Amino acid sequence: MIGSAIGLGSHLLYGALSDRRGRRPLFLFGSLFTIIFGVPMFLLINTGAGVMVITAVSLSLLFSHDPIFAVESRWFSEQFPANVRSSGISLGYNGASVVAGLLLFIATGLFGVVGWMGPAIMFSLLGVVSSLCALSMRETAPAVVEKQSLMPMNPHEVGSR
Predict the structure, then answer these.
(1) Quick one: which of 44, 71, 89, 99 has the fewest CB in 10 Å?
(2) What's the pTM value of the predicted model, to 2 decimals?
């Protein structure tokens, strides 16, 4: 509840930052934190101390979940032309929900085989997948796109624009 309460403000902050600095940098911040924090998060949780568990979950929400979720709905829908935007984003979200539903079973299976390290590594690998996806997507934040269009062209890019 503490992490979610903090998220009420952090989502707004991350959303505003994504308008100014770009969607990709905020999304990458969250996905890179996911990669780095997988094992430490589970180490904190495994202490069994309430304060450590709350800290682990709150940090995960604040720096992994919130920057990703604050920008993804806008950024993902902006990847599609307006005439197919609703269908495009719906297919993506619903397809992802099928995969996400299976992750709980996979994490439980990994835990049964290798203990807590299995879900911890899986958590980090999800950050890798998210980072690769973010790097393959175009930036759509109006301030960033406008700034990029005002930049002088590199002579080697003249024919490519």
Answers:
(1) 99
(2) 0.84
